[in-house]
Amino acid sequence: MSNLGKRLKNVGPGALVAAAFIGPGTVTSCSTSGANYGYTLLWAMLLSVISVIIMQSMAARLGIVTGKGLGQALRMKFTGSGARTLIAVLVIAAVFVGNIAYETGNITGARLGVTAAFPALATPTGSIALALVIGIVVFILLFIGKTGLIEKVMTALVVTMGVIFLVCAFVAKPDWGGVLKGLFGFQVPDGSSWMTIAALMGTTVVPYNIYLHASSAAKKWAGGAAAEDVDDALANSRFDTAISIGLGGIISMAIIVCASATINGTGVTIANGGDMAVALTPLLGSWATTIFGIGLFAAGITSTLTAPLAAAYACSGILGWDENLKSFRFKIFWIIVVAAGLIATLTLGASPTQIILFAQAANAFLLPITGILLFLVANDKNIMKGKQNKGWFNVLVILVIALFLFIAARNMNAFISSASALIKG
Questions:
Q1: How many other C-beta atoms lie within 10 A of the C-beta of residue 63?
Q2: Whole-Å CA distances, 172 to 39, 60, 209, 260
Q3: Tens digits of per-residue pLDDT, 303-313?
Q4: Distance CA 183, CA 52 (A)
């Protein structure tokens, strides 16, 4: 087998991350960005993809070198009881609670995808039944507890989404000159667009993915005693991260391009991915509604699986519990996330758009916390066994964290307004 073939065979943890961030939030944020601002905010997605490759490659390296997830590594870094308690509270607040909001948006988005593709199911009874079926399917897949099976399902769904959204983008016949200008123009159309910028970045560089990637990379590649084994695993991981997340970024940009080419300037309002699917009918034909709906459903299912899994990895690790899918204590965390997300989907009065966009924008505030913790661990010589960050890489990480601190500060008022709207329903 060729070296490229071996690299492709080892694709896995990166695909989990790509499947996680291409969720209903991505479809919704990208659709509304393209519909409202055209190609203008493509630069925000480009920066997000670069940022996520930087952060996730650091997380994967941590998992490979230490054989532990970020939560477990934080326990190694902070040994005092007071520090551990504080870190545990931060992690659980930032990941566990946040992922419940995420799971609500994920189940809602998957349901929207099905009803867009099959309008006959868009009834109150049908919506309830769909949410329950989605919740049951996710529960069964996670309860089986086979990481390899989940990786294969995620990889297949990412490829499916890639084909669907790229076809939609090319058939829409975009202005490629406008696409290039949007990618490198770094324009901010107006003050209200900062909420969209935060949502685009928050939907791509996701805090819980850092915990998910470190743990999944540890399980796939850690354990080689010889230095060359570790180096080979790191090379496989870098390839996996670049290919998987790069594809995820292209898929996200394809959604923006499709919405820009077909909806922007027409006066059509896009509130969520389901609306985007329906809006394509008079422009591209009924087939577009169906396949876009299927893509939205795939996006929802992938994220509905990864959000509770990541919460369980993060919380089990930070509490010093075994990060084993078969462990009862591990299962408790993901069961709570799935159940709470399902209940919120069925009972919460807020609109799907409010739920999804709020969860994405909230990430812009939670990411710096996780990023700083990962940065501290990845620079610890004892923990990283000589594989700590290089100086030039630290510069990149600091720039990424600074970027998200800036976005969070710039977006504070809009975030508070969004939170108030969600609470009022």
A1: 28
A2: 13, 37, 32, 9
A3: 888 889 888 88
A4: 17
